[in-house]
Design goal:
The complex is a heterodimer. Chain A is α/β, with parallel strands linked by helices. Helices cover about 40% and strands about 15% of the residues of chain A. Classes of the chains: A alpha/beta, B mainly alpha.
Chain lengths: ~450, ~110
């Protein structure tokens, strides 16, 4: 079941009944990894790693270890559909590194999931946990599936999830590898995973294993504050930056790209500081109001209309106008590669707080640096989510249930101390904050490897 | 049918509103066709906080004739793409219509191989 750094190929000799006659073809839209047609995503991740490793002169042997994933698990499993057919699904779990603690990372259900993508995401999780100084390694996984309701009923999704958990078997575990929600997976799916895993344990072990997943529904062992955690972390870091710069957030202005979970929570949590959101953009377009857009009112509108398009108290603007809006703070909280060679020169802000993963490409980074625009990099700025996942895990282990104030206070302490570490390293190496964040993560990993040594 | 023309027809029928095919999360995002965020069609999006419940690209089907036309286009695309398969599928007579999952390393045993 487990192979080292090498995807498993099909070796099944059984006749795969059912799928051909009635099965729904699931095209691999990404194509196979390393097919020579596109650069491998994992190769890009390794390039970023190499840059930081060169600068900090990472030990050559440790570099070799961190440049590879530890385990890559591929499972093909059958599931009975509502109409009696059997469909075969393919699931992945890539475990990048566990030197700092159990593997940790989300599970996504998406037709484009493939081994190369999962490798890249697992590696990022290792860096993210290391920087936040939480005792986790990095992992990621998923099933190559389109989980829309038109294709699979809720009962089928439950059986797929339970069968996947069974197929993973002891490759996950509360002290070994802890999945969490990701694209197209949610607290309900985590509850099914937990329940299935517990059924595989002896009865007297079950209550000790509910922390096999995080992101569970509150009543099934989830943590308060998990939903707003990433946005809350972004705002704590903006507060810290403002304090340090002697900048008064009261009366300041900010713009937000993306009005999903991270963007809407960040916008909402900036409001009590007296900051004014002057522009916002989501998939449907951008809005501008120099007098300020009320985040709570906009959330209510977006809930009713599914996006922000048509919101009456602001003027629609195009993407380029949005990117050129004058404000003090920009919170990109949508998708990757939004701050580029084209858009970075247009920004009229003092700080970019990266709520999204990878919103700035290398050209954008260089331009922000040249222009003196401060940046709180993604692996630091949006780590609130994984930090509160850790709190959920701790609460489950100790049979505790923390109130929201306690979760928030601990999150603030954890994320602000990570900020200070990155700041210290940026100053020491005289480098930008993104590189500094990678150096913080790699230094922690390097120190632990040096202390523990390599077996045998 | 000419390969380039086949692909063009496929794109017009299946994904006309999008013009460009975006890979990664966008491929199954409900917001794909109306999304105004700048994206690179050559680089798959891995993370997006605006990702909405998955659904396959919408089909503009209006009648049985159109359905048949679409099916024939899909079949020719599948046959064309099957040339890139590894393992038994590469030479299998059924590779144009086969719906079994195709692992990256290729299928090496299949009782339906012809």
């Amino acid at each position: 079941m487990k192979t080292a750094n090498k995807p498993r190929t099909s070796g099944s000799g059984t006749k795969r009944n059912g799928a051909a006659a009635n099965g729904k073809k699931m095209p691999d839209v990404n194509g196979p990894a390393g097919d020579g047609k596109r650069p491998s995503l994992y190769a890009n991740v390794i390039k970023q790693f190499d840059k930081a490793a060169d600068m900090m002169r990472l030990d050559g042997n440790i570099r070799k270890i961190l440049a590879s994933t530890m385990n890559e698990i591929i499972v093909n499993f059958p599931v009975k559909m509502d109409d009696g057919r059997i469909e075969i699904f393919r699931g992945y779990r890539v475990q990048h590194n566990d030197v700092l603690g159990p593997f940790k990372g989300g599970l996504r259900y998406h037709p484009a999931v493939n081994i190369d993508e999962v490798r890249a995401l697992a590696t990022w999780m290792t860096w993210k946990s290391a920087i936040a100084e939480i005792p986790y390694g990095g992992a990621k996984g998923g099933i190559q599936i389109d989980p829309s309701r038109q294709k699979y009923s809720i009962n089928e999704l439950e059986r797929i999830t339970r069968r996947f958990t069974f197929a993973l078997g002891n490759n996950i575990g509360p002290e070994y590898d802890i999945p969490a929600p990701d694209v197209n997976t949610n607290p309900q799916i985590m509850a099914w995973i937990m329940d299935t895993y517990l059924q595989m344990m002896p009865p007297h072990e079950r209550q000790r294993c509910i922390h096999v997943v995080t992101g569970k529904p509150i009543k099934s062992g989830g943590s308060l504050g998990r939903d707003k955690a990433t946005g809350q972390g972004v705002v704590y870091l903006i507060e810290r930056w403002a304090e340090e710069q002697g900048f008064d957030l009261d009366g300041s202005t900010y713009i937000v790209q993306g009005f999903g979970n991270v963007g809407s929570w960040a916008a909402r949590l900036m409001k009590p500081h007296g900051a004014k959101m002057v522009a916002v953009e989501d998939v449907a377009g951008a809005l501008y109001n120099p007098e300020g857009i009320d985040p709570d009112d906009l959330i209510a509108y977006a809930k009713e209309h599914s996006d922000i398009f048509g919101y009456p108290d602001a003027k629609p603007i195009d993407h380029m106008a949005f990117m050129g809006t004058k404000a003090d703070i920009f919170i990109p909280a949508a998708l990757e590669s939004q701050i580029t060679a084209l858009t970075a020169p247009m920004l009229k802000v003092r700080l970019v707080a990266e709520g999204a993963n990878g919103p700035t490409d290398p050209d954008g980074d260089r331009i922000l640096l040249e222009r003196g625009i401060h940046l709180i990099p993604d692996i630091l700025c949006n780590s609130g989510g994984v930090i509160v996942s850790y709190f959920e895990w701790l609460q489950n282990k100790r049979s505790e249930f923390w109130d929201l104030d306690e979760v928030d206070a601990k999150l603030k302490k954890k994320i602000v101390s990570a900020y200070e570490r990155v700041q210290g390293v940026a100053h020491h190496y005289k480098t930008d904050w993104r590189n500094a964040a990678y150096i913080v993560a790699l230094t922690r990993l390097e120190n632990v490897y040096k202390e523990r040594g390599i077996f045998p | 049918m000419d390969t380039a023309q086949t692909r063009k027809n496929f794109q017009e029928v299946f994904i006309a509103p999008e013009k460009k095919v975006y890979r990664g999360l966008c491929s199954a995002c409900m917001n794909n066709s109306g999304c105004t965020f700048p994206r690179n069609s050559k680089r798959p999006v891995l993370n997006c906080d605006e990702f909405a419940e998955a659904s396959l690209p919408r089909m503009k089907l209006t009648g049985a004739g159109v359905l048949e036309a679409v099916n024939s286009i899909v079949r020719s695309i599948q046959i064309e793409e099957s040339n890139t398969f590894a393992g038994l599928c590469r030479t299998c007579r059924l590779n144009g219509t086969c719906e079994y999952p195709k692992p990256e390393g290729g299928v090496w045993r299949c009782e339906d191989f012809e």
